[in-house]
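Closing statement on the adenosine-5'-diphosphate sub-project.
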Amino acid sequence: MSETTFRSLGASAPVADALAQRGITTPFEIQELVVPDALAGQDVLAKAPTGSGKTLAFGIPLVERIDPNGPTPAALVLVPTRELASQVGEVLENVAAARGLRVATAYGGVGLRDQAKRAANAHLLVATPGRLEDLANRRLLSLDKIQALVLDEADRMLDMGFQPQVDRIVRRLPAKRQTMFFSATLDGEVGRLARSYTDDPARHEANPEAETVEEVDHQFVQVTPETKVQTLVDLLGQAEGGHALVFVRTRRGADRLLAKLRERGVSAVAMHGDMTQQAREKAWARFESGKVTTLVATDVAARGLDLQSITYVINFDPPDDNKGYVHRVGRTGRAGRAGTGVTLVTRDQQADVSRIAARLDLREEFTSSGMTVAPPKLVYTSRKGRGGRRGW
Ligand code: ADP
Ligand code: MG
């Protein structure tokens, strides 16, 4: 597997060069996922958090697919605010210029006529729903040549009450078009809307905050099966009121550990797959509200849990691999907060955990625990790993 580039995802040389000039050479996860499908003309339903690189995920395919000599506007990007409109407009302008395409923005608070003229003349139009509807209602702008529609930050558009406008705008567009829907969440109403606007979409989800573990202080602690629980209790004592998420390998292991913690006077809750939805929700509510600050969970049960105040992630049982480590420990140190990830390691787990640590560039953290890093036993299959952190 060689390194992914924008070229290898299907972007043209001029577009890739324009990106490279701004130091953008390696696609982010959501771009890697979305660009090939979107370039092929497929509808897309993408869920990814802020800062994950959604703009180029739709921007590159839009720019590649629009004919510079075709009618305008050919693509419409709806965004919830004027700040976003100008921000997205700027990003698109850079790549669009590489293919001789024009970009315009339309939002409230600016004179209508000039804006309408520029909008009608641009290949790509980035607009807020209110202003766009206004332009269309006044017949200052025709939308019948739109081939691609992007709903960016769709969840925020709904939160801001734009659904009626968006609905009316979508009804004005040609039925034969490509639709891309981007949102930080696809739960509830926004998911329903996403499905109603798109046709057989490719679904993609990226969780980039789980990819970095840099804001976190990583510790590895030698234990024996006999000292393990007490070590955990001591660590929880140091957590000082912060929320601690404790990972175990199995459902039964979760119940056993919970019982042992309670024996030692530590109040904790558990979440795992054998519990009813109701019981899980109850446990989560107690943890979230801070009534209990220790949650014991399996990997599966902890999936998707998001709590800003988790300051400790403790691997009572080590994760299976480096990806698992990042997923678990990525639950702390979010949004620039400080967090701590502690992994308890018994003698027979030492070699495996040391390899995980080495792959994540945590050799020093590992050896400072007094344990040694085992030599790699895996074959290096990637010709060019990502900064040495991936590709094993
Ligand atoms: P989102 O819309 O998901 O919140 P943006 O598209 O605004 O994210 O991108 C967030 C930031 O990341 C921007 O500053 C953008 O320039 C930068 N960025 C996007 N893609 C890449 C990339 N592949 N490499 C480096 N930086 C990128
Ligand atoms: Mg965005």
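The CA atoms of residues 80 and 359 lie 41 Å apart. With this model delivered, the sub-project is considered complete and its resources will be redirected to Aim 3.
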